[in-house]
């Protein structure tokens, strides 16, 4: 039983990372029907931004680590959101205004991800960076089960972000506008709603969450490298698809589902089988329900 509970806690932590990134994927897709394949690399940029912000405050000011963390979290989310908005303004908006086919937008998103990866490599080099300690580690133990304060923070952060997003999308006017654009983006401007402002807000939310995920991941696994966002970004995208991309509940559930599958496979089989088993199980779920767990098949009116 202790081993089971320990694996459940580990799965909740990994699922939290996947869920935070998958929520960004599903937000952008829900509004624009755009799969922002650069989102995993925005997560990587968020981790590096957190590194430089934390190093700046630790180096120039005699702040306690918890004060540095309190300053680093909002600044990281804000600056990472700026990166996402910049990509939208430079790469996606011109294509959208010209009515480019969605395939070209997807290719552009892939290109943006490669630019972020290789730009990081060119500017900062291939050497890995160690993230500074911003939180005094506290280990809580019950019998043979142990959990750190950081692991609890990661899990609580993912749940809190999900609840806030669910409230924004379902209970606010900007959320109503986001849902309206996903339903009919041509009628929304006729109702006086600034579509570009809503899209920018969507990128702010999605990229800010990627920045938060990057910060929490860097604190949990404090070694940064330029390609750290590639694999975890693809996994989070798959988690969003399995949950039903475009649905916030689906992205949240899909992230945790992938975390549970991966940790469960590692607990019973060699770790080299993790991705094989995890993706095979997810593929079977999509065979049974191609639209994802919460996804709904859409019909096109002619």
TrEMBL record:
Protein location: Cell membrane
Membrane topology: Multi-pass membrane protein
GO biological process: one example: L-alanine transport
Keywords attached to this entry: Amino-acid transport, Cell inner membrane, Cell membrane, Membrane, Transmembrane, Transmembrane helix, Transport
Origin superkingdom: Bacteria
Transmembrane domains' residue ranges: 17-35, 42-61, 67-91, 103-126, 146-169, 227-245, 252-270, 276-297
Pfam families: BPD_transp_2 (PF02653)
GO cellular component term, pick one: plasma membrane
Gene Ontology molecular function terms on file: L-isoleucine transmembrane transporter activity; L-leucine transmembrane transporter activity; L-phenylalanine transmembrane transporter activity; L-valine transmembrane transporter activity
Family recorded in the similarity comment: Belongs to the binding-protein-dependent transport system permease family. LivHM subfamily.
Name of the protein in question: Inner-membrane translocator
Taxonomic lineage of the native organism: Bacteria, Pseudomonadati, Thermodesulfobacteriota, Desulfovibrionia, Desulfovibrionales
